[in-house]
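in:
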């Protein structure tokens, strides 16, 4: 099926809209029509190649949308379901079996280095040459994303997907930094540098609630108090 994707052709290149081909969902996959997507620092660091991912490629890893097609063995989703997408995981290694999917032993090849499914097959192709996809299991800077059902979380029909898209990366990162790492004591004060998706979530997830919090924002590169 032909879809439109924002392709980064080379290091520091622009995001250019192109018509590309997306595959049919395999038995354990979903084809998702993307309606909202966050822009994370990691997308930009791949574009500059500070983070390794093969180019030319389609980035985007905070996608949200509506299920368009469902693989034959997928039971938890139906066409029309609203979903939020996150990274992929193998489901069978010891950390995945223990529910710690973020520590999946296949995390790096599944989400970053390969630019393809784990078996090397492409989710996105184009007639004009090479194209890498499956970025963080999704490559959601496109009208559609082909993802493992393990990457998707169903959400209520009445939610605003534009508000939920950053759950895929920055919200998890910000909340995890406070809840699992900083773990502030009552009466302590947290200073958050940067007021993007991760920074705002750190503000929300202060625990205990008595902890004070200050965020140093940055707008157009000029630090300021928020
Ligand atoms: Zn795993
Ligand atoms: Zn991210």
């Amino acid at each position: 099926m032909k879809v439109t994707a924002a392709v980064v052709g080379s290091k520091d290149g622009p995001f250019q809209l192109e018509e590309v081909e997306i595959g049919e969902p395999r038995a354990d996959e979903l084809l998702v029509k993307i309606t909202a997507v966050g822009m994370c620092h990691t997308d930009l660091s791949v574009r500059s190649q500070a983070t390794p991912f093969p180019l030319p490629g389609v980035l985007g890893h905070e996608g949200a949308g509506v299920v368009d097609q469902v693989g034959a063995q997928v039971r938890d989703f139906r066409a029309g379901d609203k979903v939020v997408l996150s990274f992929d995981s193998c489901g069978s290694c010891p950390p995945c079996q223990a529910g710690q999917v973020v520590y999946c032993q296949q995390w790096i090849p599944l989400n970053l280095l390969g630019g393809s499914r784990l078996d090397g097959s492409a989710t996105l192709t184009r007639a004009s040459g090479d194209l890498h996809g499956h970025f963080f299991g999704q490559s959601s800077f496109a009208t559609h994303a082909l993802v493992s059902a393990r990457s998707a979380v169903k959400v209520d029909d009445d939610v605003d997907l534009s508000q939920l898209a950053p759950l895929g990366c920055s919200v998890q990162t910000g909340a995890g930094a406070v809840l699992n790492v900083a773990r502030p004591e009552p009466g302590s004060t947290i200073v958050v540098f940067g007021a993007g998706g991760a920074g705002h979530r750190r503000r929300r997830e202060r625990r205990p609630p008595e902890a004070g919090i200050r965020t140093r924002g940055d707008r157009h590169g000029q630090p300021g108090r928020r």
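note: The chain has six helices and twelve strands.
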